[in-house]
Design a protein that fits this description.
Number of helices: 8
Bound molecules: uracil, iron/sulfur cluster
Helix content: 25-40%
Largest sheet: 6 strands, mixed
Radius of gyration: 16 Å
Strand order of the largest sheet: 1-3-2-6-8-7
Structural class: alpha/beta
CATH superfamily: Uracil-DNA glycosylase-like domain
Shape: globular
Length: 215
């Protein structure tokens, strides 16, 4: 089976220990062409965790999640919604960049289900250590990883969902009664015809998250 499981140390008690093990992962084939693994980062005591899709071109080169254009936009939206960007943790459903080489350009390719499933043990391990109060799921790939293949972001965005009741594999998440919320991916805002409207929509969803955290 294609899975990261055997590479994830089950005795890692800190995120740093977990992160230190990630470069050796060969849980799926994506490590072969990518520059490096891109692990989550942020406040280890964050009350809210953001889960994206996979690192992009810039993230792959820098080894850090959400440091390219989508990351800048996300931080701006988070700030505008009233959540302190210094107190969040950000990670991805898949930890290696998947792309297609065309000449000199590397074109982003959406990860397949096999990559999402293979990489889940890392995400599960991160969430198990972080024990956040709220998980913000960014876009369809993260939604597939966490909320199941039939979850539709367009239909259910901005709704607070009970967790782990809405989790795809509730048994994976030994996190007591928290909440999850899905919204669009910041890259979708960058691609939208009406960027301002899409950005405002993202901020409106994140305000739901901010209110949940204020309680
Ligand atoms: N998009 C993502 O989903 N994750 C990143 O880290 C960067 C862009
Ligand atoms: Fe391992 Fe995930 Fe990278 Fe695949 S994408 S090699 S499962 S870290």
């Amino acid at each position: 089976m294609t899975t990261a499981q055997e590479f994830v140390p089950d005795d890692a008690r800190t995120l740093d220990k977990l992160k230190a093990a990630a470069p050796s992962c060969k849980g799926c084939e994506l490590y072969q062409d990518a520059t490096q693994v891109v692990f989550g980062r942020g406040d280890a005591h964050a009350r809210v965790v953001f889960v994206g899709e996979q690192p992009g071109d810039v993230e792959d080169q820098k080894g850090l999640p959400f440091v390219g254009p989508a990351g800048h936009l996300l931080r701006r939206a988070v700030d505008e919604a009233g959540i302190d960007p210094a107190h969040i943790y950000i990670t991805n459903a898949v930890k290696h960049f998947r792309f297609e080489q065309r000449g000199k350009r590397r074109i982003h390719q959406t990860p397949d289900r096999v990559h999402i499933e293979a990489c889940r043990p890392w995400l599960v391990a991160e969430l198990s250590l972080l024990k956040p109060e709220l998980i913000v799921v960014l876009g369809a790939t993260a939604a597939k990883a966490l909320l199941g293949p039939s979850f539709r972001v367009t239909r259910s965005r901005g709704e607070l969902l009970p967790w782990p009741a809405s989790a795809q594999h509730p048994e994976d998440f030994p996190v007591a009664e928290i909440q999850a919320m899905a919204t669009i991916h910041p890259s979708a805002v960058l691609r939208a015809d009406d960027r301002d409207a899409a950005f405002d929509g993202l901020v409106a969803d994140l305000k739901v998250a901010a209110r949940a955290l204020a309680k």
